[in-house]
Amino acid sequence: MDASKPTDHQQQIDQLKQTKQLISLLQKALENVSLAVKQAGTSAPRIDGVNVDIHQISTKLLNQLNGVAMPLLGVLQMTNRLNEVATPVVTSCRHSCMEEAAYALCKIWVILKSCYGFRIRGDCATRDSSTDGVAIKTFVLPSLVSCAVALSSLEVADEDDGEHSFDSKDEKKSEDTVHNHSLLDRGDDCAMAVLKCMRSFFVNDDSDSAKPSPIAREVGNAMGGALVARLVQCCLSLLPRDAVAARSSRRVDSALQMEAAQTLHDLINGLPMKDLWQSILPGLFAGMYGTCLSKLRYSPSASSHKIASLCVETLACLLKQALGSDDREKADAENDTESIAASLFAAVNISAKTIEKPSAPQSKLDDVESEVNSRIPGPLSVLLSLMPGIRSKSVRLSGLHLCRIILVDTNFIWTEANKKSLGRKAFEYCLTLLRDDNGEIATCSREILRSFKASLGAMRWRRYLSQIIAPSILELVETLPLLAKSGKSAELRTSLNLVDGYTIASFRDMENDFDFEECLNEKRKSDIGAALGCSESLEVINNAFAVLFTPDIGSIVPKPMIEVDSSSDSTKLALRYEGNMLRFEYLDDKNASAATASVRLIARALGVKRCAFAIDGVYADMFEACVRSAGSRYPTEGSHRERLKWAGLGVVATELLAGVSGPFSSAIGPCTSKSTLKVLSSLASSVFPIIVSEPLWTLPSVSETRHNDPKEDNIGAGSRHGSYNASVVMVLMRFLCLYARVLGTDIKLLFPTILFPLIERASPIGNHSSVQRTAFSTLWTISETAGYSDISSLLAMNVDYLLDIISLRLRKYAWEGSHLERSLMGVVEVILQSVVYQRQVSGNQSSIQGVVFDAGAIVGNMLKCFLDHFDRQSNISNLSALDTVRVFRSINIFIASSVDRVIDCSGIDIHATGDDDEDFDWLNRLNVELNVDTSGYDESESLFEECNADPTDPPPTTLPDGDHPSDEGPAFTREINAINSILSRCGYLLCHAQLHLQVLCCQSMLTGFETLGKIGAFRRARQGESASNPLLPSIAEYWPAIIARLRAASASYVSSNRISRKELSIRNAMAEDLGENTQSRKYLGVLLASLFTIVAELCAGSDGFFEDRFRHDVYPIIAKLVGECLQPMRGRETNFILTPLLVLIKSVFESSCRYSLTGLVPAAGSLILPFLACVGNVGDEASAAVKAMLTVDSDALWRPLHKLACRPFPPIPINLDERTAATITSEGSTALLVSPTRDQTDIVLARRAQHLLDFIETTSESPLN
């Protein structure tokens, strides 16, 4: 065989390539013709300057196009005509030629439409039946037949339904199965081109006429409708069905599936022939339904959702064409008649035809309706139940179009049973999407519901709703807990939206029907208020939503408490923790928002009065249940579930209130009418006393140990039970917060009821951290709505009756001899700290002066009650001691604030100091100090002597200097006695085993000593140096307790640093480093720092009185601790006390007793100088301490500093002239003689020493006596 001779296989490929090239050239020519036709338009063409008849050109062009189309049709049918098994390469070439032929037919059809105005709907523009008939018979029908044949011959469209009817062709295909599966080109691109060619014949233009054109009639009637059926079958073969998707391995590209579905949609829409589609309805509906199920159930991809939405649209279009009414056709027929008589005559003719043949059409229509009602509603209901939960916008929107067909366009065809089932399913689908996140879908849903309502009429609409709406809402609400507990988030959201939809549909007299915002924000009447307002319905709603709003106990975890002190702004703290801190166990954020919106919408439907009764009932039942369970001592699982239910019911009541009160605006508050405010005010007066009463409000949110319990250290045993109680209290405070926003400034009328309980929960004592933060947020909201600047202002301006309530409770406990509640101590701390802060920020404003006058005597009375309670306890517990010391600290701060204000009003500067060496009568001062009465004080005589005075007389300690009857000014007797009373108890508690308590005692004592020092300075400024200083007898009395605690703490700290590691194994050493020893060193460091601060204050305020105690008691401890810090192995652990030590030394040598301690400068300086080499805060504090010593005695450290600075000693300037001495001095003060090879630490040390030497040069010399 000759190798150079081409084979048949190669010849086929070459021929197909030539064919493709010819078709490509033909396409370019057709494009030029199409462009020329568009440019010519309707004007007569000119050839060589002569006008030519356009009709002749059109006829000739039509004949030429028909001749061109014939070979293209043959190319499309080549595979079916040859009927042979080809190689994969030949098959691919055939597909390529068929693809080009299909695109060429599309271009020919575009030219024909441009020339002759062919339309698929309405009348064609040619008005020439002969031309229309020729074009249809010679081009349109053959093209469609060829497209159908081409699609059926492609492998990609090979049908595989799982049920084969074997004939000769099927046997042929089964023989070539292995060959076909080996093809690489299955004809996807070819099928895409053929589908586009088919679509080009059925794409609608701008005509809205439902009347089919001659082309549509010919295509629909061709072969008795078999052509359309074949085209539909070819398109369906490219779409997956439910069974095929599960069993077949055949894969079809998603773009090809989209094109097939779009072709079906255009085919149905382009042939408005009711009888035709009724005959094809069963098979086409089944195929499209299977595709929808396959895409919605088994394929969650975005492309699958697009195909599913297009298939649903096609189904809707099919139902409209096959089952829709003929109103539009009748309207078009009436428009064609030119007179009323002609229309009447046409009606008579139609009636005559109906009378002549009454049986066949009507019986056929009845059969169709019967089949439709028996087979279609079930599948449609399945589709409508699947689509609401799909996230795809196109799927949900196509479902709405299907609902429009069911509810409006084909409503007349359904039986009553199907209207109740399928019609209700479509109605609920539209109601569900009223609250859709997409605005377009929500708007479309509203339009469909309005059309449905208009088609029924007002009476039928209300009758329709009355039968289903209230029972449906209750049924849906009952299913919500099960959906939430099972974790079906999408189904839960759908059910909540459906509840909202039913509720929205019940409102009447709407300006914009079915508008959610109007229902929620405007006052509208609902038809279901009475049905939902009965006790049975309210019980169902409350219980169901209480389960949904079950708090997530895991999110209520202990966090750092908000410590309120006089230097912090509680408003900022509240803003920091403002917001919804409560999370729900079964709801995410979206479902939580949907659930709250549902409850608020139900509240709008119930109305104000029914909501008020519902809220009152919720809290009444909650209070009764709490009273019944108050007797149980130990928590159980049943009690935990009960508290979760209370919390859920509280959230329901809060959302009911939010719904009935209307929207909120940050500028004007709630948009609530006067009648609504009147009802809500009455409800508040009924509900608030129940909410803040025992035992509901006082549920313990933290584990509390009884005062006489020997196992009081096991404090955290009931923390989980406290979290359940905390959730209930948080919900109650959220309700109060919302009520404050609703009532606005009228909330002031309820301050006597709610303010004190809220402060109880805002206290850091005896409360869970989440409860405290919620209380701060609530207080901030109340202060904002009531017109106060911040929380401190709110408490300060209402401190009179707050302290009065505290005094009444203290008297009650004193009379009964019972233990004080921890929350009461927390209230005292919060109130006093807030008053002090408000004094600081307000200055001498008149609005705060009255608060100061009224609070002094009440605070004194409170202090006496606290002291009596403290003294009565034989075995004080840790918690009780902590709470008591915190109160003592707050009272000391309050007293200090009062003293500061009086001193400021007097206009005397107690910090001004004169020359200590001039005009100072030391002998007079010595006589005063020797005659000081150190016998202490008598609490019973002078501590509260002014509490029983006339309340109209202001206390003497709060009067300005000009208003006091004595020239000596206020004596501060009450303040001095109160401070000494607190100091005596704190001195006693300094020996307590708990380090935290010791630190609090030190802080309280420090505040007391500072206040006594200020009083002494004030007296000296008024009376001179002969005035007595109340700080001195306090030092004499309480110094033994302080120095004992200082010695014990320093010894413990030193011993903790001297653990013998040789006796420990590596594992024990690691455990020791990570265990309690490290923590104890830290706490001991904090305690020592607090004690050092007290010593520094005593030195500063005692005017030399403290010098001997510091020299003999304190300095040996300092020297020992500094020696420990100098050990090289200590590392960074010494930083706990090193900085406070250096600060103490600096403060001592800056105090009034510094000159008495001149002898300690050499020794103390030698201890501190090594720390100059430290980098950072330690080195800076060491440098500051040395500077303080240099101001006292610079000569004692001059020589050591010279050595550290590596600077040579200056020569004796006796034998030098002035110029040489000046040169040597200037050079010596600036040069740093340090070798570059030395350590960096030595360089830092030398530089600091040089700066200190420069500082010595700037100090003034003391005169020689």
TrEMBL record:
<dbReference type="Pfam" id="PF21547">
    <property type="entry name" value="TTI1"/>
</dbReference>
<dbReference type="Pfam" id="PF24181">
    <property type="entry name" value="TPR_TTI1_C"/>
</dbReference>
<feature type="domain" description="TTI1 C-terminal TPR">
    <location>
        <begin position="950"/>
        <end position="1049"/>
    </location>
</feature>
<feature type="region of interest" description="Disordered">
    <location>
        <begin position="943"/>
        <end position="969"/>
    </location>
</feature>
<dbReference type="InterPro" id="IPR052587">
    <property type="entry name" value="TELO2-interacting_protein_1"/>
</dbReference>
<dbReference type="InterPro" id="IPR049362">
    <property type="entry name" value="TTI1_rpt"/>
</dbReference>
<dbReference type="InterPro" id="IPR057567">
    <property type="entry name" value="TPR_TTI1_C"/>
</dbReference>
<dbReference type="GO" id="GO:0005737">
    <property type="term" value="C:cytoplasm"/>
</dbReference>
<protein>
    <recommendedName>
        <fullName>TTI1 C-terminal TPR domain-containing protein</fullName>
    </recommendedName>
</protein>
<dbReference type="InterPro" id="IPR016024">
    <property type="entry name" value="ARM-type_fold"/>
</dbReference>
